[in-house]
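Appendix C reproduces, verbatim, an entry submitted by the partner laboratory led by Prof. M.T., so that reviewers can inspect both the input and the predicted structure.
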Amino acid sequence: MKVAVVGTGYVGLVTGACLADVGIDVVCIDVNAEKIENLKKGILPIYEPGLEAIVERNTRKGRLSFSTNLAESIKGADVAFIAVGTPPGEDGSADLKYVLTVAKEIGENMNDYGVIVTKSTVPVGTAIKVKKAIADALAARNSEIAFDVASNPEFLKEGAAIQDFMKPDRIVVGIESERARDIMDRLYKPFVLNGHPVIFMDIPSAEMTKYAANAMLATKISFMNDIANLCEIVGADVNLVRKGIGSDTRIGTKFIYPGIGYGGSCFPKDVKALVRTARENGYEMRILQSVEDVNEDQKSVLFNKIVRRFGADLSGKRFAMWGLSFKPNTDDMREAPSLVLIDKIKAAGGTVVAYDPVAMKEARHIIADAIDYAKDEYDALIDADALLLVTEWAEFRSPNFKILKKLLKQPIIIDGRNIYDRQELVEQGFEYDGIGLGEPKTA
């Protein structure tokens, strides 16, 4: 079986590498020549635990290759995944220009039957547009090559994408013919030996499933952040509340940890796109609009705590920031709460010195020298007025608090992820403030 994957971003590269790892012949295609040359040398454009080893192994064995030539790469492909970006437009809608451009090029160059699969997150109805773009391109060449379209949304968690792909809890595939079903069933057979299913459905339902899944998870996060904010006002402890509700099997423990808002490439974009899709169809997604509103407000929670403690004028104040990526185990800073916090601190006259285990290169690309970069987490603390915990990397969970207290100008920790024990730190002489824990406590 031959598979072509168009797009070597997060989804495309993980998809191509994991398919190759079970023995499938895969070519990954991208218009960015520099990216392709780097991939041939084993230099990846993203950080994802375990991915580099899989790419190296399968490139060496000849199962995984990289190309800028879609015309040649698409020939003979049983399945072609479209995994290019769908950036949000000004109105929140998903921009499909890259998806449809690829569809047109596939139609111009395919030489035999294949299943064309949208792997990118796309609004309901996109498959119809993809099918038309391919059909129009085939008609222009007077070709009657048969093809099918399918929708196969990804459900990968950044930082755990390899595990999610290799041992999925479910695979959703939208199809319109038995022939396409047979091919997709054969493609994914190695990945469902754990007993979890390939769920086949119609294409619109598959397209909607991706948005509904991300919207539900985003809703849980914003709900818990809303509860945390109220806990802080009324004097309740959101950590205890979380345990109390998480023990209910109808609710569960996942995605109910309070924090400083969600970010990344999926939740913000997908919530906006679903709200926009509903609006285009004359319906208002009132809950999801509130989910987005709460999330945007939550990104300012740490800054509001800083202002309450230090005042609105932060001139001369220096803040150590631990974590820049929107979550641990990734260098992704898209829609990261850290960016909002940095902007607000600088606008108030303060400075930031940050450390992140993997995201500082990406931060330099996005914000250049807007902040100072520390060589390690302790270096960031020197002469800082407070420590801001922004991303809950594992290496931040058990620091040497004696060193923290010695290096900080003032022993103040503002914890945006509630990873530290408030009582323990208060007893050690720290001033500690978390999310949803009532009034800050001091020794």
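The two ends are 66 Å apart (CA to CA). Additional entries are available on request from the coordinating office.
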